[in-house]
Write a structure and sequence with these properties.
By secondary structure, the chain is mostly beta strands. 12% of the residues lie in helices and 59% in strands. The protein contains three helices and twelve strands; from the N terminus they run αββββββαβββαβββ.
Length: 203
């Protein structure tokens, strides 16, 4: 049993060490409309929504639709990383997925959904704004299956937070046991920024 636990811990540590770290993050605030057949249009009755978009240090991207909900059901944070294709051209970023598994977290519904949904998406980021059309959001809720569609449009973004320049803004770096480090080490680092914010960075 002890050997099994040590092997499991080693596997988790190895996975964390290989995990990508965000180097640029933009938060888009806007509205979302949700439907069941065709892509709906945004109107005055559409709900507020937030999308966090990150560029990772391994060249991949991450799209997080925070607290996605429909028909009064809070699905949770839907994260698309695997299978997210990105093309940058003339200042425009086009993101696409084709029926990929997206992990769902941060909600009571996440476990009932098996921790994931299938999703197809096309999103465009241009001049600081994002428009995302999500189709074939396949939800399997306790044996009841449904396909949901959604459209997100941002009204503003918070701008790009370049995490890669964190070292210039860092006041202290600590390991998991609270020991201060002279520089970031491989694995999980607790970084206290000069502005008082604390972030966790996996290197």
């Amino acid at each position: 049993m002890k050997r099994f636990l040590l092997s499991a811990i080693a596997l988790v540590v190895a996975f964390a060490a290989n995990a990508a770290t965000a180097v640029e993050t933009t938060t888009f605030q806007g509205k979302i409309a949700v439907g069941f057949e065709t892509i709906p249009e945004i109107d005055d009755n559409s709900d507020a929504a937030t999308v966090v978009f990150s560029k990772m240090d391994d060249g991949t991207y991450q799209f997080v639709l925070q607290q996605f909900s429909f028909s009064g059901l809070v699905i949770g944070d839907v994260t698309i990383t695997k299978g997210l294709n990105a093309e940058e051209k003339d200042g425009t970023i086009v993101l696409t997925t084709d029926n990929v598994e997206a992990p769902v977290t941060n909600s009571e519904m996440a476990a009932m959904l098996g921790g994931k949904v299938l999703i197809t998406m096309k999103a465009t980021i241009k001049e600081g704004k994002m428009v995302a059309e999500l189709s074939n959001i396949h939800v399997n809720l306790s044996g009841t299956e449904m396909d949901v569609t959604a459209k997100f449009e941002s009204s503003s973004s918070t701008g790009i937070n370049s995490v890669s320049t964190a070292s210039a803004q860092t006041s202290r770096i600590y390991d998991l046991s609270g020991r201060e480090l002279p520089a970031m080490q491989k694995g999980l680092n607790i970084v206290k920024m000069a502005n008082g914010e604390t972030v966790k960075i996996i290197k």
